[in-house]
Amino acid sequence: MTRSPPSRKTGLLAVAALAIALSSLPPAARAADAESKTTVSVSLPADPLLVQINQVALERRGPKRAVVEYKGEAAQGRYTVLRDGKPVRRGELRALPAFAEWGAGKRYFSVDFSDAEQAGRYQVEVRIGRQQARSAVVPVRDDAIFAIAGAQLLGYFKRSRHTDAADRDVPIFGTSRRADVWGGWQDAGGDKGKYLSHLGYANYFNPQQASMAAWVLAYGAHARKALFAAHGLQAQVEDEAFWGADYLHRILDKEGYFYTTVFDQWGTPGAVRMVTGYEGSAGTYTALYRSAFRAGGGMAIAALARASMLAKQSGRHGEFDGAQYLADAERAYAHLREFNPRYCADGKENIIDDYTALMALVELHHASGRSDYLDDARERATNLIARQQADGGFVSDGGRRPYYHAAEAGLPVISLSAYADIEPERERRQRALDAIASALKHELAITDAVANPYGYARQRFQLTQNGKAAGEILDGFFIPHRNETGYWWQGESARLASLSAAMAIGGRKLAERGTAGYGLTAERAAYAQSQLDWTLGRNPYGMSMLYGFGRANPPTVLESAGEMFVGGISNGITGAPGSDTGAGISFAPGPDSEQWRWVEQWIPHTTWMLFAVMTMAADGDEAR
Fold first, then answer.
1. What is the CATH classification number for the domain harbouring 73?
2. Helix (H) or strand (E) holding 509
């Protein structure tokens, strides 16, 4: 989520929405939720033997792996894979390297049944010594996660729509002007604010929020039309894409910039809801409300350009038409091309400006065919590639600060992949492909550099000193808690899905295609799958962060995390509180006023999950 909010009451409407959401949960999740209306604290399971698996769905032709955690003396064990309740395979557990960062005294094993390609409902049973345990049951089928959860992932956006008429007329901070900013989506379960991005004051943390959602929906409806239509979702995704495009039109100022946030200090009593920037855990209003490329402006342009193509393809549109969407996108790009550094908190561009502007230019080129957009895309791609280090990792600035991001770490690779699709010159395209290959190699290398039983995507970072990243370059599993924002760290469900999408999209652009699933080599396919598996239940807590799916879901904490929508995804697991580097592991330890860090649903999580599963559902190159 976006903040450390003041305590507040959510009211009868929130409770009613919660009751509706709970009615569609699996029994175990409803039972867990019923016990969580007061103080909530979630600890690692104490069971001596656990079998953790993706609880939502696994691809019929793709990686399928369970992780076994064991506390005991026995050194060996056996497993049985069941399909529809009947044994289909038996064997010895494969021991994994010793790992103690998330708790001493455990041994880890794995069960790989990737070659079980018959559709059905699978379960893994394990016996070690006198201990026996079974995993959750997981469906295995084609287009697995999309087929089973796609409708609810998409439905999350409609459930999150913001329709308060008061947003038809809100003040703009520091001016006498007012604006119509009606529509869009609330940012999170406990936040009715609307964000193209936030954390701009920290320069390197801007996430793409509503603008990314609008692009993913428009891209899905247009480029993945066959997939959505096959599952009866085409009209629904078109409606949501145009809803997003209409909102972007309304928040485009006459001068040519987008409004970054519509904010009321997270519903603080007495706070004025307005177009504003803000900073820090107090939500102090600032004049940083003009969106730079990195503050949602780039992806807003991309979304409007793609929505214009969707309108042309479908013969439909929202309140405004496709010609208006494209005109908005072109006007906004022309403005940011001239003024973007002025809207950056530090007055200079960084890697996020490069990759979001590159996405904007690719989509403008697709929509208009104009060669000047290709020229500018080449410049942005050159800038982005120049930020890549010899080992494939990126730096965020002109120095040595490592690029890391809690919500969109895969977007640099995705933007270069999109650029490669429009680049006709062979040498330029090859440079982009080489950068993609190097970046993916880096992601695999840093993830495999230490014992890592769950295959969780690790990251490189620096801690802050006097408010700026400095000192030794470190690496670890989770985002560091001592960072430039001064307060913001949370679970990384969006980051993981973005990396899955990057591995699938980038990997399929390269020559080394494979047959291990998703058109990828075995190593890349396993990485892409592992990040989704973590969010969907194959994690040490045995909890699916996708609400309404799986054997267990996060608890409800109305005090700071607000409503829980079916199809929404909670922030997720973090490093331990009190650890500057984000070492250790934690999920919802309390107090309740801090539970937003783990429990709250946030729009980028469902956005990136939907994008990842629509990407991975199609084993082949993306439609244009």
1. 2.60.40.10
2. helix 493-509
Of 3-17, 37-51, 388-402, 499-513, which range is least confident?
3-17
Helix (H, G, I), strand (E, B) or coil at 316: coil
Does residue 28 have a pLDDT over 50? no
Stated length of the chain: 624
pTM: 0.95
pLDDT at res. 3: 54
Whole-Å CA distances, 603 to 170, 411, 560: 23, 16, 16
CA dist., res. 545 & res. 490, Å (int): 13
Asked if the structure places residue 623 within a domain, the reply is: no
Residue 259 is encoded by which pair of tokens?
């409004």
- Better-predicted residue by pLDDT, 147 or 622: 147
- Position 452 scores a pLDDT of 98
Q: Is the dihedral of CA 233, 234, 240, 241 positive or negative?
A: positive
| Contact assessment for residue 355 and residue 411, using Cβ atoms and an 8 Å cutoff | yes
CA–CA gap between residue 71 and residue 48 (Å, rounded): 5
57 part of a folded domain: yes
Q: What is the mean pLDDT of residues 465-481?
A: 97
Q: What is the DSSP string of 235-285?
A: HHHHHHHHHHHHHHHHTB-TTS-BB-EEESTTT-TTPPPEE-EEETTTTEE
Contact 435, 387 (CB under 8 A): no
182 lies in the same domain as 135: no
* Residue 171 three-state SS: strand
Question: Contact at 8 Å (CB) between 111 and 574?
Answer: no
Over pLDDT 90: what percentage of the chain?
Answer: 91
Name the H helices within 160-253: 210-223, 225-230, 234-250
Dihedral over Cα of 346, 216, 461, 436: its sign: negative
Kindly state whether residue 318 falls inside one of the protein's structural domains: yes
CATH number for 242: 1.50.10.10
Total number of domains in the chain: 2
Average pLDDT over the chain, rounded to an integer? 93
Q: Cβ distance 541 to 573 under 8 Å?
A: yes
